[in-house]
Amino acid sequence: MSAEVSLSKNELIDLIESTESASCDAACLRGLLAEVEEEERIEKSARLGIPPEARPEEMTIEEYLAEKRGQSHVEHGTDLECRICHDKFDHLISGTCEVCFRGWMLSTKRS
Ligand SMILES: [Zn+2]
After folding, report:
1. In CA terms, which of 61, 71, 93, 106 is 20 to 30 Å from 53?
2. How far are the Cα atoms of 37, 38, 43, 64 from residue 48, in angstroms, in the given order?
3. How remote is the CA of residue 64 from the centroid of ligand 1, in Å?
4. Cα 10 to ligand 1 centroid, rounded to whole Å
5. How many helices (H) and strands (E) does the chain have?
6. Per the confidence metrics, is the pTM higher than 0.90?
7. What is the rounded CA–CA span in Å between residue 95 and residue 88?
8. pLDDT, tens digit, 9 for 90 and up, residues 24-66
């Protein structure tokens, strides 16, 4: 079931409580609440900067690349040679140019 509910969490809790007081089965609503809480946890993790390993599906490719780039050694200079395509650049990320770094990270991500 999708967690796309238009209720706020408190409204959902109220709904569960009123459903329970009407002695209906609230199990499915509780399931929804668990999903909402899981989404809150993921959002909180993102805000706190918890590593993407904990939330791999939430990362876009650009976010993944930005993060890997942030973790990589960036070299600035003149005539730096990319160790993959061997062209010259004014900066390298982990010894590779932007294009090769991107291709390299994406191939790492896929495997
Ligand atoms: Zn390159």
Report:
1. 93
2. 16, 15, 9, 16
3. 19
4. 52
5. 4, 2
6. no
7. 11
8. 566 777 877 888 888 888 788 787 776 655 555 667 888 889 9
